[in-house]
Amino acid sequence: MWRLRIIGPLMSQPPFVPPTLSIKFPADLPVSARRAEIEAALRATQVIIVCGETGSGKTTQLPKIALAMGRGRLNARPGERGRLIGHTQPRRIAASSVAKRIAEELNTPLGEVVGYKVRFNDRLSKDASVKLMTDGILLAETQTDPLLKAYDTLIIDEAHERSLNIDFLLGYLKQLLPRRPDLKVIVTSATIDADRFAKHFADTKGQPAPVLMVSGRTYPVEQRYRPFEESRDYGLNEAIADGVDELWREPGKQGDILVFLPGEREIREAADHLRKHLAHSPVLRSAEVLPLFARLSQAEQDRVFDSHHGRRIVLATNVAETSLTVPGIRYVIDAGTARVKRYSYRSKVEQLLVEPVSQAAANQRAGRCGRVADGICIRLYDEKDFAGRPRFTDPEILRSSLAGVILRMKSLRLMAEGGRVEDFPFLEASSGRAIADGYQLLNELGATHESGELTPLGRELARLPLDPRVGRMILAGRERGALREVLVIAAALSVQDVRDRPLEQQAQADQQHAKFDDDKSEFSGYLKLWQWLHDARGGRTVATTRAQMQLQHGGAHKPVNVAALPVAQRAQAALAAARQALSASTSAGPSSQASPRGRGGKTGGDGRAGKLPLPPAGEGWGEGVPHAHKLSNRQYEQLLRQNFINIRRVREWRDIHTQLHTVVAEHQWQENTQPASYEDLHKALLTGLLGNVGCKIEAEGGGAPNASEYLGARGIKFHRHPGAHLAKRPGRWVVCAELVETARLYGRGMANIEPQWLEEVAGHLLKKQVLDPHWEKKAGEAIAFERATLYGLVVYSGRRVRYGHIDPAGARELLIREALVGGEWPEDWTGALPFLSANRKLVAQIEALEHKSRRQDVLVDDELIYAFYDQHLPAEVVDGRTLQAWWRQASRATPDLLLLTREELMRHEAAGITTAAFPKMLRLGGVDCAASYLHQPGDAHDGLTVTVPLFVLNQVSAERAEWLVPGMLKEKVQALLKSLPQKPRSRFVPLPQSAERLSGILGAPGAFGVGSLNAALLRQVREASSLDVKATDFKLDMLPAHLFMNFRVVDEHGRQLGAGRDLGALKAQLGGQARGAFQALAGLKAAKTQLAAGHAQISEKNTAPAPASQAQEAIKQIANQAVADDARHTGWDFGELPELLEVRRKGQVLIGFPALVDAGDAVRIEVFDEPDVAAARHRTGLRRLFALQVRDTLKHLEKNIPDLQKMAVAYMPLGTIEELRQQIIDVALERAFLTEPLPTNETAFAQRTEEGRARLVLIAGEVARLAGAILGEYATAVRKIKDTKVAPAATQDAAEQLQRLLPRDFLAATPWAALQHFARYLKAIVLRLDKLRQDPARDAERMAQVRAQEQRFWRLVAERKGVQDARLRELRWLLEELRVSLFAQELRTPQPVSVKRLEKVWGQIR
């Protein structure tokens, strides 16, 4: 046993004497001189603040002072429970090195009196008195020892670092001290904010804790500022090398150099640069360059603290700022930066950023030198930069997520019921935002309720001394049978990746690492690597390529289509498979025999091959494989180096796995014996990484997704890390182990996931929105689309859900409004719910009255009908199923419960709405057509719509359509009167009374529907007003659309072929089809192709067709066989040709119009459905029949047309001489034989033949002279256009006019009356071009007026498929007269014409 013996200055009162232990206090340490004051203050108060400067000896001497005061287990009295002196350090390397130094000073073995306990390492005996540990270890002990009864003294060293653990401990101790009056606390640091700490530990009277200032050693430290500018050729490494040269320039200066750098990567790069730099100096090439950072192995750390003789450069991170005293350090080179972890409240990720250190940290670094002699500190930044830095480093609590702290506080019940984290006595309270983020993470993990209280899962998490995320993954792994795999992966995520990628050998490293890469998950890659390490350690044959690795892990190769192989290969493959199966069954032994450790081999008990289960700590799989000789340490390390695997990190990975396995064993959790599936494993990992889920961003315009950019939680965007160990590109949905922001935000540790997994794992976090609730007729219920998001990421969208389960009241309203009121109910409801059909029929009847009367106040509005159903339906009726179930029961007592009555649906009676005023059928073209009515302004079917069969379309009269129906006559008459000019309109004021009077006259029996309504009304207006009112005074374009009949053309099957209010346009579009349908229905010869084409090519003759008689006695009855015969006639040998033909077919009475049709060398008889078409074809056929009778005269005429050769020269640009001759003869025949009335029998035909034969030659000469005059003017106009070089637009317009006037068949195609004016039109073209030079601007202005009218005309002709009625033909020649009046007024026009007059004509054309 040890006996206490105190040696040193200023001995205080000796305490209880335990077994002898020699305690010496070095006199050269300043803290030894202040030992008495420290002991006195510690006896007087519970807490003291010791501000010991760097080199004061506080770290090593304060535990010895406590021992000397009689504290610690060593000083316990017999029968008393001995307690420890706890001494915390911020880092593991500091705790272990300080423990060694104190043990050496006490001359005791490490662990007996002074020991340490750090993460995964413990050198502490049960009788030890001083325990060095990290602050995290002490914080973890509060779980099992809330009052910290194991300690009588606590020394919180390096408190200035203000880590999260330190701040939590300081607040925890402030609450604990009143309950532990025997506990002494010493808070110490070299650069501490003493006032803040003293006030924090003020006693109940408000007196701050005593502060003791201890000076450092007396060696001065010179500060040198050497700022540098970063460039391509000069950087940090070059600046460090220059600093080394400066410090070692003098031969007598032999001290070591400590260089502070921000991270491990910078240390490696600087070490390589310095070794190359020193190699050029014969004196300095032997200097050692050693790294020092937290992840170094214990052996490598010991190498830094071992004694040495040569020069040394130690490259360290900020682990060497505090507590550690690297021996022999005389100089410091400070880069001025450190890698600091900050939590981003925006992106919710930890950012490992390189930042400038604070003044306190810089002074700590400077204090590392000057302990053995005068020191020099070179700062690689300027003094102004140093002065502008913050005084102290930001506490970690202000730059971290507080989830773990909150979880621990909740589990320890440090807050009263309903208490807040803000009330916890932190040294410096964290922001509300940080606390909210902490709660948010706990809520994400399912550890807290919405109220903030712990869930059962949260209480279980709090018992694990692990990060909450890791703990959550382990708990999920236990539940999903993936605990073994999760332990390996969690340990891998806690250390730096064991795979090295040296800069000079990156390609080779990637090649070696490729065998561990998985197609979908980097986590699965860790499992492959773990198994590979185990196999390698056990001496088994390990995979050297990716293909071998896939084969070992269940054969990931794409299966071969055996059926496509040749027969020989299939037989060979089957034989090989049989041999392999036989060999496996022989070597495996009895299948029921268990493995030595109770686990199967590579294949699970169910026979499925999958990922291998993970072994306990330090083990792999493959127990069924015979054990080979294990590799020696050297062989194992050599194998790892060949595969670029870091040996030290592998050891740390195994150590962490061992500790995690110990935690699992302490809770007696059973590991899975079967391999976990990919889904179960990643669902377990997903529970702790829900904030790191990402979805691939779609490219703009709906293209392919971006290959590497992902949209993460809360709108952040991250990229796949360049060093990701995946054999293929990640999928659309991924989860990352961490998100780290450097140059950009990267996701490390990616794995493919399925979005549906999020519904199971993160169901408590999904924000669900119900969009577009609507009624679906087919489903018979209200349906909505559900959209779920996880932190803004759309997990699914557009999912159909029953709205009745979400919002019963809203679903009930949709049921009533859409189904019961709107009529959108399935057909199968008709039988089950008879009131629906009855109510619909009644509503339809009242709606028909509204449409006919064009009133919307007859039927009650939907709200009253809704109120009726709402009153009778119970609240639980929300869809079709509940409605039918309720109705079946309710209708037994009240059968007419939901039947509406006419009185309930009508506001008032609709007077005047009779069948006579609004008939259901209209007779058009001799056929009864269905009529429907709609009152919906703006709709295409607003007003009266008549369904016209296709076969009767050509016989529908436009004049009859003007009358509409008797019930709409008054409204149309009033609208026509309103469109009159002011003077005649004033004679009919008030218009409603005048319209009612006139409609009574026009609607009288025998007057309604006779002729044109506009003409009939015009006569009445003239008689009543005594004014010369013209037809163009009625502005038809001012009338609303519903006052024009809407035609719906249907075929024999009822399919709509066309619709519109322009009857002429419909006939132009469908006239050919209508003619064929008419002849097919009548049983006559089907329409030929030339018949359809001939309708568009009918010549505008100078005579009009004879009007068809409407008298019944004119209608002739002819047998169908007579007209259907395909006989060819060369003379009038077919009897009398009737004007009309009545044919009865299939109950329909059809009126046809027979005509002679030109057949070349004969004529045929055909029946047409339009009188105009029949008349035009009849004239052509009759002309052919006359020509056949005068063959000899025509032969003479063909040879003796006057000036034919001369005309042919001018006609040459248009056609041949034969075409010109034929046109002259056709026009001569037309004028000689086809004068009205046309012959209708053989006698009249013979008389007309003899009359025409006598004057045929004279008429032909007249036609020839007119043609010669026209062609002469045509030649002049062509030359003029060619010779005019100015105003290309005008000459082009003239050329286009000439082309329209004189097509190839202008003589035959132009009516004779219009042909008389052609010479004047052509002269007008020449005069226009003569005047062009005088005033081109005037010509352009007038040309614009004419072209606007012409474009309007030809657009209308195009809409009517080329068909021109009488009004359009009149307008056509008025446009030519307009050109004469504008460009050649001296030629004069037959009648006044202007743009204004043309507008009146346009008003008559619809």
In short:
The chain has 1406 residues and is an alpha/beta fold.
Polypeptide structure, described:
With 1406 residues, the protein is an alpha/beta fold. Helix content is 43%, strand content 15%. The strands form eight sheets. The chain has an eight-stranded mixed sheet with strand order 6-5-7-4-8-9-3-10, with helices on both faces. Strands 11-18-15-12-14-13 form a six-stranded parallel sheet, with helices on both faces. Mean pLDDT is 82; it is low at 1-18, 555-560, 583-619, 621-627 and 1084-1125.
The termini sit apart by 124 Å
Strand content: 5-15%
Based on secondary structure, the structural category is alpha/beta
Total beta strands: 35
Strand count, sense and barrel status of the largest sheet are: 8 strands, mixed
The gyration radius over C-alpha positions equals: 54 Å
User: Can you give the helix content as a percent range?
Assistant: 40-55%
Q: Characterize the overall form.
A: elongated
How are the strands ordered across the major sheet?
6-5-7-4-8-9-3-10
How do the strands and helices of this protein lay out in sequence?
Elements: E1 5-7, E2 22-24, H1 30-33, H2 35-44, E3 47-52, H3 58-68, E4 84-89, H4 92-106, E5 114-118, E6 121-123, E7 130-134, H5 135-144, E8 151-156, H6 164-176, E9 184-189, H7 194-200, E10 211-214, E11 221-225, H8 236-247, E12 256-260, H9 264-278, E13 288-292, H10 298-305, E14 312-316, E15 329-334, E16 337-344, E17 349-356, H11 359-366, E18 375-379, H12 383-387, H13 403-411, H14 432-444, H15 456-462, H16 468-479, H17 483-493, H18 506-513, H19 522-537, H20 546-552, H21 567-588, H22 633-642, H23 647-666, H24 678-686, E19 693-696, E20 709-712, E21 717-720, E22 733-741, E23 745-752, H25 755-761, E24 767-776, E25 781-790, E26 793-802, H26 803-806, H27 808-821, H28 829-832, H29 834-853, H30 862-872, H31 880-893, H32 902-905, E27 921-924, E28 927-934, E29 943-949, H33 958-962, H34 966-978, H35 982-986, H36 991-1002, H37 1013-1025, E30 1046-1050, E31 1056-1060, H38 1063-1082, H39 1089-1096, E32 1115-1116, H40 1120-1124, E33 1140-1145, E34 1148-1158, E35 1163-1168, H41 1171-1189, H42 1191-1199, H43 1204-1211, H44 1217-1233, H45 1242-1283, ...
Parallel strand pairs: 1-2, 3-9, 3-10, 4-7, 4-8, 5-7, 8-9, 11-18, 12-14, 12-15, 13-14, 15-18, 21-23, 29-30, 32-33
Antiparallel strand pairs: 5-6, 16-17, 19-20, 19-22, 20-21, 22-23, 24-25, 25-26, 27-28, 28-29, 30-31, 33-34, 34-35
